[in-house]
Design brief:
single chain; D-Maltodextrin-Binding Protein, domain 2; binds adenosine-5'-triphosphate; five-stranded mixed β-sheet; alpha+beta
Length: about 300
């Protein structure tokens, strides 16, 4: 009998596509995908990837077509609120927060227009493609406003006179700026999420979900992690240890011919910023090297 295969839905073409594929490749998945094909076959895991519009991903898991999905929290929460409003049960579970697809759903007003806080939204027309999230935001603040639901091009709605302000996704803010809009409030901080079906999966599928999640955790930890090597005066060791971000047990190695100095090697599990390196240098560190970590298994 054929082995049961996991089905994972990812965005077909958009901002989440490349980071999702890269993440899967880093988890060791090799897929063969013909041009414009809807499905790719996992060659070395019993897992197939379905390429769809991001908005359809929660539905595919909800309706048991896929076991797993990679989607933005914004899309997921919108769907969750929509299902709740319609009295339907939610049938997808978040498994992991992923470190890509970062953006926020924000309110933005035309530049030069004042914003008097959420209370000032009363009676205003707000254009969005996220009516449920916006409605939830307004309800929580006890504000009544008119939600203008659009399917796209939200940022030009104020100029067209269709709305007074907008509620849209922002990452750098350059699109807002280009449309003479000013971000004033965050409705939701978003990032990509791995979701799964609440169904109990057969043992083999279930085992592969576990393996995939374990690899994902490793990949994400490694992404931030750096291997730091430096020379330090023995007298400054305590301070240097304190400065090394997220590393509990650095390796201390004596340096041949300089009894007052040691080499320090450490895996730092947090982002190493230039400021940290400058502080290390100030504390007496020299010959500082920061290297990427390829793989890690705790
Ligand atoms: P589709 O055709 O799949 O429906 P789309 O136009 O809805 O595509 P994209 O613009 O590719 O989708 O965005 C997909 C997801 O990427 C968003 O839902 C969000 O989670 C995330 N994202 C990250 N940064 C941004 C950003 N600056 N603007 C919009 N989405 C962003
Ligand atoms: Zn979409």
């Amino acid at each position: 009998m054929d082995e049961p295969r996991l089905k994972l839905a990812i965005q077909k073409s958009g901002r989440l596509t490349d980071p999702s594929l890269e993440m899967l490749a880093r988890c060791g998945l090799k897929i063969s995908r013909g041009k414009d094909q809807l499905m790719a076959y996992g060659e070395n895991m019993p897992l197939d990837v379905l390429f769809v519009r991001d908005d359809d991903i929660p539905d595919l898991v909800q309706e048991d077509v896929c076991d797993l999905g990679l989607v933005g929290l914004n899309v997921l929460e919108e769907k969750r609120l929509e299902l709740a409003a319609r009295g339907h049960p939610v049938r997808f579970e978040p498994l992991r927060t992923l470190d890509f697809g970062r953006c926020r759903l924000s309110l933005a007003v035309p530049q030069g227009q004042a914003f008097a806080g959420p209370a000032g939204l009363a009676g205003k027309r707000i254009a969005t493609t996220y009516p449920y999230l916006l409605e939830n935001y307004l309800r929580e603040r006890g504000v009544t406003a008119e939600i203008v639901t659009l399917s796209g091009a939200v940022e030009i709605a104020p100029r067209l006179g269709r709305a007074d302000l907008i509620c849209d996704l922002v990452s750098t803010g350059s699109t807002l700026q280009a449309n003479h809009l000013r971000e004033v409030e965050t409705v939701l901080e978003s990032h990509a999420v791995l979701i799964r079906t609440p169904l109990t999966l057969p043992p083999l599928k279930s085992e592969w979900v576990e393996r995939l999640v374990m690899r994902l955790d490793g990949v994400q930890q490694v992404r931030e992690s750096k291997y730091i090597m430096l020379h330090a005066p023995r007298a400054a060791l305590d301070e240097i240890r304190r400065l090394l971000p997220g590393s509990e047990f650095p390796t201390i190695i004596p340096l041949e011919g300089s009894p007052d100095k040691v080499a320090v090697h450490a895996v730092c599990r947090e982002t190493v910023f230039w400021e940290t390196l400058e502080r290390l240098k100030k504390a007496g560190a020299s010959a500082v090297l920061v290297l990427p970590v390829e793989k890690m298994l705790a």
